[in-house]
Each structure stands twice: as C-alpha cells, then as structure tokens.
Amino acid sequence: MNEDELRADIVKYGALLYGRGLAHGSAGNLSVRLDDGTILVTPTNSSLGFLTAEQISKVSIDGTHIAGDPPSKEAFFHLAVYEERPAAKAIVHLHSTHAVAVSCLCHADSFDVLPPLTAYQIMRIGRLPLVPYYRPGDRKLAEAVRGLAGEHKAMLLANHGPIVSGSSLQKAVHAYEELEETAKLFFLVGDRPLSRLTCEAIADLNATFPG
Ligand SMILES: O=C(O)[C@@H](O)C(=O)COP(=O)(O)O
Ligand SMILES: [Zn+2]
C-alpha cells in the first residue's frame, strides 16, 4: 500500500474502532510504518472517530515530526515496537474498557496476565505481559515497552491499556479486538473453576499458526 492508501486506512480503522466503542473521546493512537522507516501516527488529542487523511502526522525513525498535525505523545513507544519487531507494520493502542480493567488488577505473574482461554486468543495475542506504570508520553514508558516488544506482539500497559502490533493495520485491529473480547470473557467467567488450554494445546497452536 502507498502512503495515501495507508492514510486512508488509518481514517477507516479509527472510525471503525470508535464506532464499535473500543475508542472513546481522544484516547488511543494508531500508527503504520512506511517502507522508508518513517511512521504515520494519529495526532495528539485527536478523536480516532473523526480523523482526516491530511492531519495524520508523519514522524521519522528518531521521532522528529515531519508533516501533519503534532503527533501522538506516544509516538516513541510506537517507534520502539517497530525497532524491536521488524515484521510489524502497524500498531493499535486504545483504552477499551475490559482490557483496561485487566490492566488495573494485581497480577501474580506480570509476564502472563490473562489465562489461556481460547485458541483464537493464543493465535492472535499470545502471552500478554504487563508493562509497569509510567505517565503517558514518558520516554521511560517507551523504554519499558521496548524491553518486552521483541517477544510479544501484544502488551498491556499497567493502569492504562493495550498495545497490539501486526503485519498490517487490519491484522493489528483484529488482534486488538480479540484481546478486548478475551478480557471480557475473563471477567465473565470470574471465579468459576477455569478450564485452561493445556501447554500441549498452546504449543500445537503456536506450531500450526506461527506469527
Ligand atoms: O493515555 C494517553 O494519554 C495516551 O496513551 C493516549 O492514549 C492518547 O494520547 P495522544 O495520542 O497523545 O492523544
Ligand atoms: Zn493511552
């Protein structure tokens, strides 16, 4: 896809996520990586439901603002994920209700904060680690994200929300939706005895559906 098509994609998926109630107010940010390593990212304080192609920000690999409106204050964690995941071409960060609720819990294992419930969860999200809390926009947040990004296509920012990457914006959006639905299931099953997917089942899924 060329830059114009990718800009149109960000507008389309921003509106879709907003329409589905996964994005609200001016929370969240989306980005895609261009072939030259620069990224297109949603402008800071913009509503994902009402973007225009022209206002979307362009940012260089070192975080310099090149074009469009001022970029998301989280452009640095987007850049950190792209650096650590060469195959990633798009990133979705939102504050969807159930995933944020999981991010506000205490977790026995901060490297694995959701039990393995369904095959699709394993295929689209994998093991979900919690990134320690830092103020939004803090460069320390971007560095903490960098530390986990190589091993995880999805991460959960403590007391904040998920970051999900994919090889296209469509794939990142689908994975994000799977994460929100998994978080919903997690609360729905609550304290009832849980039938977790076995290690063998997870290994089989990972071998059959790599990436
Ligand atoms: O939670 C925050 O403040 C950011 O992570 C966010 O979601 C929106 O920030 P901008 O992209 O700078 O609007
Ligand atoms: Zn946020």
UniProtKB/TrEMBL annotation:
Cofactor: Zn(2+)
Gene Ontology CC terms: cytosol
Reactions catalysed: 3-dehydro-4-O-phospho-D-erythronate + H(+) = dihydroxyacetone phosphate + CO2; 3-dehydro-4-O-phospho-L-erythronate + H(+) = dihydroxyacetone phosphate + CO2
Keyword set includes Zinc: yes
Residue intervals of the Class II aldolase/adducin N-terminal domain: 8-187
EC number: 4.1.1.104
Keyword Metal-binding applies: yes
Alphabetical UniProt keywords: Carbohydrate metabolism, Lyase, Metal-binding, Zinc
Single GO biological process annotation from the record: pentose catabolic process
One Pfam family this sequence matches: Aldolase_II
GO MF annotation list: aldehyde-lyase activity; metal ion binding
InterPro entries, A to Z: Aldolase_class_II_sugar_metab, Aldolase_II/adducin_N, Aldolase_II/adducin_N_sf, OtnC
UniProt family annotation: Belongs to the aldolase class II family. AraD/FucA subfamily.
Function comment: Catalyzes the decarboxylation of 3-oxo-tetronate 4-phosphate to dihydroxyacetone phosphate (DHAP) and CO(2).
Protein name per Swiss-Prot or TrEMBL: 3-oxo-tetronate 4-phosphate decarboxylase
